[in-house]
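[audit] Reproducing an earlier prediction to check determinism. Same input, same settings, fresh worker. If the tokens differ from the archived copy the diff job will pick it up downstream; this log only records the rerun itself.
[audit] input (120 residues):
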Amino acid sequence: QVQLVESGGGLVQPGGSLRLSCAASGRPFSMYASMGWFRQAPGKERELLAAISWNAGSTYYTDSVKGRFTISRDTAKKTVYLQMTTLKPEDTALYYCAYQGRPAGNYDYWGQGTQVTVSS
């Protein structure tokens, strides 16, 4: 089992920044593991925003967040981050982190989510 706890969400004005954190605990990570950040807005499907391979640190971003969001990880703290800049009202959503044990596998473990609201 892997337990994930997100933090760092909140209310921010358009153009502002937030850094989300996802602290993991439980069993050791697979050497092939990746961590992903997702979001889901009301009435919309959940979407993968960014992912990072745990060992190599290789990253993936969906087009809508490229250049604005940065995913990173601290392997010693077993924590993954999502730095979000130039936030827009359409970034408002519940943000989740998730664990993927092997490439192209399912994201098997999920956090409870942290709300991000972008509004003036």
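[audit] rerun output stored. Observation attached for the diff report: The mean pLDDT is 95.
[audit] end
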